[in-house]
Amino acid sequence: MKRIPRPGALLLAASLACAGFAANLAAAQLDAGKSSVTAVARQIGVPMEGKFKRFAAAVDFDPARLASSSAKVEIDVASFEIGDAATTKEVKGKDWFDAARFPKAVFESTGIKPAAAGKFDVAGKLTIKGKTVDVVVPATYRQEGANQVFEGVLPIKRSVFNIGEGEWKDTSVVADEVQIKFRLVTAAKS
């Protein structure tokens, strides 16, 4: 009997989309120690969460000049961890992320629009496992001293990216929807 991968692992790569807000302007850089990208999915109704340990972002963000703001995020899919070694290994395999063939998930913005106070909608292209899809990432933004903080949750469907192939296509065991959660902090360069 095959072990059931924990669902959070499945779409963490999608967290790229969220991570798209990660870095800020040319004068700032991602503070990896204060930033995180996780994915939460449900396995037999139970929420499971995993995280990516390595991701990079290049963002030029200024709330006063959204038309020229942009973001690009790359996530190292092989850095995903779900808390159990066997499940982590399974999720990196061919039926799930296929990290050997598709080592990175990528989000690249195409436009940023204001939403409610302190919130923005970041449109862009999310590529996971070789499939590119248009997404809109809802994000909050706030200034904390010299840092900018971006947070949000992006719901995606794992089936859209062929995450969970073969016997794992059945969404009754591992739900199709995955919540990508992110907290990205940029720090000014000295």
From TrEMBL:
It comes from Cupriavidus cauae. Residues 1-22 form the signal peptide. The keyword Signal applies. InterPro entries: Lipid/polyisoprenoid-bd_YceI, TTHA0802/YceI-like_sf. This is YceI family protein. PROSITE patterns: PROKAR_LIPOPROTEIN (PS51257). Residues 27-187 form the Lipid/polyisoprenoid-binding YceI-like domain. It comes from the Bacteria. Pfam families: YceI. Keywords: Signal.
